[in-house]
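Schema walk-through. Below, the input block comes first and the output block second. Nothing else is stored per chain. Lengths vary across the set, and this one has 128 residues.
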Amino acid sequence: QVQLIESGEGLVQAGGSLRLSCAASGRTFSNYAMGWFRQAPGKEREFVAFVSWSGGSTYYTNSVKGRFTISRDNAKDTVYLQMSSLKPEDTAIYYCAAVNRWKTTATNYMNEFLYDYWGKGTQVTVSS
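--- output ---
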C-alpha cells in the first residue's frame, strides 16, 4: 500500500501562485510514477499533470501548460505541483495519484483508472 497526503490548499486571487505537495509513504517511492488530477464542482475528475518515476518525463493537460510545473524529490518521497498565473477555472479539489512505473506508457498516463493509489485531495480556490 502507498499512502498519499496532499497539502498546500489555499485561496488565492487570479494571477497568483500556489504550490501543492504530496507526501508518499508505504512503498518505494521511485517505483511509482505520479499524477495530479483535479475535480471542479459539478464536473468529472480530469488529468492535470504527470511525472515519471525518475522525474525525467513530464506531461500536462493543455489548459495548464506554461503555468503549472510538476516535479518530484525521490529523496523526500514527495511530488509537487507549482501553479502560477492561476485562473478562477483552476478552482477544484486537487488529487495526487501513484501508478506502478511499469504500467505507464507515453499515452496512458492521463487515464485515472490506471492509477493504483490516491490521496484524499486538497482544495484550491482562485478568486476573480
